C-alpha cells in the first residue's frame, strides 16, 4: 500500500513539475507547438496514472491542496478537478493554496459547478471570494459588481490584485 502512495505522489510531483515547464514554454519564443503538445501528453499520462488508483487518488491529492509549493498544490487541485471532485476542494478552500486552485480551475471545465462557485463568490471571505471571482471571470461568467468594489478597497494586496485581474478578464467589466 505504501508503494502505491509513493507512486501516486510521484505522479502528482511530475504533474506539478511539467505544468511549470509548460507555463514557461507558452511564454517563450524558444518553444514550438509540438514541444508544448509533448508536455501536455506527459501531463495527461501522469493524470492517467493517478486515475488508475481510484479513491486512493483522492486520499493522496486532497491533503496537498494547502501545500506552500504552488506546483504541488496545483497538481492536487487540477487532478481533483479533472476527476470532478470539486466538492473536496470546496470543503477546504480556506486551507488551500488559492493561487494554485485559481490556476487549476482556470484550466479545466467548471460548467458543472458554476452555481456553487457563484455562491462561494457571494458568501465567502474576501480572500477566497476574490480567488473564485478570478476563476469565474476567466471562464467568462458574469459577476455581481458589489463584491469587486469591496475587493478593490480591501487591505490585503492579494485581494486587490485578484480584483483587478478579475476586472481585466470579466465579460461585464
Q: Sum up the overall morphology in one term.
A: globular
Number of domains: 2
Contiguous helical run count: 10
Oligomeric state: single chain
Percent of residues in β-strands: under 5%
Total strand segments: 0
The largest β sheet comes out as:
none
User: Between the first and last Cα atoms, what is the distance in angstroms?
Assistant: 51 Å
Helix content: 55-70%
Rg (C-alpha, Å):
17 Å
Instruction: State the secondary-structure class.
Output: mainly alpha
The H-and-E topology, N to C, reads as HHHHHHHHHH
Low-confidence region ranges: none
Mean pLDDT: 93
Write the topology of this structure.
Blueprint: H1 2-25, H2 33-51, H3 55-61, H4 70-82, H5 86-90, H6 98-106, H7 114-123, H8 126-138, H9 145-152, H10 157-169
Helix pairs in contact: 1-2, 1-3, 1-4, 3-4, 4-6, 6-8, 7-8, 8-9, 8-10, 9-10
Protein described:
InterPro entries: ARM-like, ARM-type_fold. This is HEAT repeat domain-containing protein. This protein is mainly α. The chain contains ten helices and no strands. The chain has helices at residues 2-25, 33-51, 55-61, 70-82, 86-90, 98-106, 114-123, 126-138, 145-152, 157-169. Helix 7 packs antiparallel against helix 8. The longest helix is centred in the N-terminal third of the chain and has 24 residues, at 2-25.
Write a brief structural summary.
The chain has 173 residues and is an all-alpha fold.
Please supply descriptive tags for the structure shown above.
about 70% helix, mainly alpha, 10 helices, 2 domains, ARM-type_fold, globular, about 0% strand, single chain, HEAT repeat domain-containing protein, about 170 residues
Amino acid at each position: 500500500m505504501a508503494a502505491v502512495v509513493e507512486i501516486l505522489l510521484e505522479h502528482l510531483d511530475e504533474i506539478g513539475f511539467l505544468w511549470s515547464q509548460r507555463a514557461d514554454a507558452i511564454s517563450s519564443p524558444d518553444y514550438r507547438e509540438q514541444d508544448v503538445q509533448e508536455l501536455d501528453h506527459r501531463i495527461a499520462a501522469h493524470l492517467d496514472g493517478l486515475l488508475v488508483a481510484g479513491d486512493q487518488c483522492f486520499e493522496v491529492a486532497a491533503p496537498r491542496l494547502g501545500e506552500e509549493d504552488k506546483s504541488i498544490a496545483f497538481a492536487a487541485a487540477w487532478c481533483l478537478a479533472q476527476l470532478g471532485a470539486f466538492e473536496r476542494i470546496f470543503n477546504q478552500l480556506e486551507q488551500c493554496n488559492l493561487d494554485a486552485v485559481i490556476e487549476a480551475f482556470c484550466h479545466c471545465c467548471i460548467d458543472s459547478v458554476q452555481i456553487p462557485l457563484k455562491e462561494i463568490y457571494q458568501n465567502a471571505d474576501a480572500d477566497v471570494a476574490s480567488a473564485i471571482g478570478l476563476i469565474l471571470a476567466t471562464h467568462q461568467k458574469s459577476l455581481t459588481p458589489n463584491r469587486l468594489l469591496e475587493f478593490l478597497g480591501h487591505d490585503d494586496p492579494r485581494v486587490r490584485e485578484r480584483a483587478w485581474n478579475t476586472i481585466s478578464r470579466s465579460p461585464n467589466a
